[in-house]
Structures are given as C-alpha cells and as structure tokens.
Amino acid sequence: MSRAFVKETDEVPDLPDRPISPHVNLVTRRGLRLIEAEVARHEAALAKAQAAEDAEGVAAAQRELRYWTQRRATAEVQPPPHDCDVVRFGCRVTIERDDGREQSFAIVGEDEGDPAAGRLSYAAPLARALLGKGVGDTVTAGQGKAEIVRIEAPAD
What we know:
single chain; alpha/beta; Chitinase A, domain 3
C-alpha cells in the first residue's frame, strides 16, 4: 500500500527487538566505552526524531536504545589479563595458517568483534578454539589449521 493512503495519525508499530546473544556479555574497557557511545548516539537520534515528529525514526531509535541499554546493563568488564602465557580474553594472539598467512587478533567482547580490524569476539569459533591454548599449539581455523606463534598482553 502506498504511503499516500496511510492516515497521518496512524502510529508506526514498534520494531521487533534486536536479538540478544545468549553468551555472557564480557567486554573490555574499550568495549564498555563503545556501548556507552552507542547509547548516547541513539538517545540523541531519539530526541531528534521526536522533535521532528518522525514516527519511523522514533521507532528505530527506540529499538536501538533497547538493545544497547540491555547490553550496557549486562556488560561484565574484564580486567586486562596479567599474563598471556595462554590465550585469554583480552590477549592478542598471532596465528600462522597452513597457507603461510599470519593473522593477529585481540580476543574481545561480542559487540567489539571486527575481524577485519583485528578484533575477534570471544564467542567466535576461532576464538573458542584458541582460548586456553599456548604458543606452538595448533587449532582448526576455517577449513585448515593454524599454529599459535605469539600471545601478547593488550596495549590498552
């Protein structure tokens, strides 16, 4: 149906909630700052949409606020690891894949995960395979294998 046939007084229905991960919401200090920035960003978007009487914008901002407020409420900030003798949450791990490529990832919370930027969610299959392993250990990485060549404490 065309928007031309919708009465201006018709309310936009609430958008369905974004799914919340079943995993514990572990975050780094950086991750908590990112969550707080998302809450602030969507609070501002809500205020702007309300001022503009933009019902769709209000619904979208409310949906995002529900998600990010929940993530902030359940966030469990993890202290940086004191040592990285094995892969732990917060450590940076470098692997060498069986095709010779080296990749380095910080093990972080789900909302911070961005493999292209070198941040791997602790709930990702590769991170789960790496956790608790040490230098020289081999893990399944996608279709191949990878050897852990370095584990470092975080810079943050």
